[in-house]
Amino acid sequence: MSDRRYLVVNADDFGMSPGVSRGIIDAHTNGIVTSTSLMVRTPAAVRAVEMSRDYPALSLGLHVDLCEWEYFDGEWRLVYEVVPLQDEAAVAGEIKRQYERFCELVGRKPTHIDSHQHVHREQPLRKHLVELANAAGVPLRHCTPGLHYESIYGQTAHGDPYPEGIDPFVLIDVLKGLHSGVSELACHPGDASDIDTKYRSERTVEQQILCDPSVRAVIDEEGITLCSFAEVREHLTLSVE
Predict the structure, then answer these.
(1) In the structure, how many helices (H) and strands (E) does the chain have?
(2) Residue-range domain boundaries for the chain
(3) Superfamily of segment(s) 5-235
(4) What whole-number distance in Å separates Cα of residue 21 and Cα of residue 13?
(5) In this predicted model, what pLDDT tens digit does every residue of 10-23 receive, in sequence order?
(6) Residue 32: how many CB atoms within 10 A of its CB?
(7) Residues 199-208: contacts with CB within 8 Å, 24+ apart?
(8) Is the overall model pTM greater than 0.70, yes or no?
């Protein structure tokens, strides 16, 4: 692969709400987003898939959604849990159900897999998503060898505002510091005014910087190849560890 740098810009939470989905599409058509990950459990998922059909260059992956946590009053609390995370049979069944729902909605398998709030980094979720990614022959965030992970985010680990994290100059620094090979830049653009979420105004800012001409200019100046997960398969080892 030599020293070439390939970049997949992946927007999480496609289908979270109509506004979030529209923002992701905008960041694809007018910005640098090349791929997105679909939440199949939401009422807005069907419409998101319908919208995506007009943009065949936008890779569509599966955003496995098993739970959500938020930091409140000095501690982490569970907002929702689809199935008990320590119940392996329930976890495996729900992952399979969401994968099958994706295939039903989209009409094909996902181009990549990741999870809401990265819960698959821990066991027992990790082994089940590794098995799924290997069976599907697709990349899995944090687990596929040679796939470097980068992100931008407008809050701290405790959910406090962190506008410095979603500044165009921060993104430009990330782009200039990319490893050779394949990198994934995770982001969360969108208009979240139609949904109850703590990560709301930050999505709008992300959408704006992903569409900033200066960001695109740096990609060109640096000789970075912007591509989708569908286009980068040949440059990755798809046996997930």
Answers:
(1) 7, 9
(2) 5-235
(3) Glycoside hydrolase/deacetylase (3.20.20.370)
(4) 8
(5) 999 999 999 999 99
(6) 22
(7) 199/154, 199/155, 202/153, 202/154, 202/155, 202/161, 202/163, 202/166, 203/20, 203/23, 204/23, 205/154, 205/163, 205/166, 206/27, 206/152, 206/154, 206/166, 207/23, 207/26, 207/27, 207/31
(8) yes
